[in-house]
Design brief:
By secondary structure, this protein is mainly alpha-helical. Helix content is 68%, strand content 8%. It has one domain: Arc Repressor Mutant, subunit A, CATH 1.10.10. Strand 2 (92-96) and strand 3 (104-108) form a beta hairpin.
């Protein structure tokens, strides 16, 4: 009885649970794809994520180790270890900051850009494959939000 009240209070249907489960599965499948793609080039998915953060930085700006830690939701010392490994593999270079000598700026090396471009292209292709399902999920979620959490009437 208590369980049914909670589900009614939150307006959750079996279909809602099925959609959430399908969405979680799609996320897990994408993350598994990402881990496998990174492993094929000798990296972890965290290394790939770090390289993405560095490459995504707008021209004229830079990423510091602290920025990287914040973006990846990891501790500073973990980011240092991550950068150490990427620098050892000659994928990232550290350069002293011109603004603050205590800071180090991170840049992808030419090799890093090459590796990242291949990984990013395969990730983009995978997103194109799974995109229609995600688009349907978010479209349905948006329609439900517009109707106060209820399924809109079909025409």
């Amino acid at each position: 009885m208590e369980l049914e009240k909670a589900e009614r209070r939150h307006e959750l249907t079996t279909q809602d649970y099925a959609e959430l489960a399908a969405f979680r599965r799609a996320l897990r499948e994408f993350l598994q794809f990402s881990e496998n793609a990174a492993a094929e080039v000798g990296l972890t998915s965290r290394h790939y994520q770090a390289m993405l953060v560095v490459r995504a930085c707008p021209e004229g700006q830079c990423v510091t180790i602290n920025d990287l830690a914040q973006q990846l939701l990891i501790k500073h010392n973990s980011a240092v270890g991550l950068v150490d490994r990427l620098a050892q593999e000659k994928l990232i270079a550290r350069e002293p900051s011109t603004d603050d000598r205590r800071k180090v700026e991170l840049h992808l090396t030419n090799r890093g850009r090459l590796v990242l471009s291949k990984l990013a292209a395969s990730h983009r292709a995978q997103l194109h494959r799974i995109g229609p399902g995600l688009k349907r999920f978010f479209g349905e979620l948006s329609r439900k939000e517009l109707h106060g959490g209820r399924q809109p009437a079909r025409r």
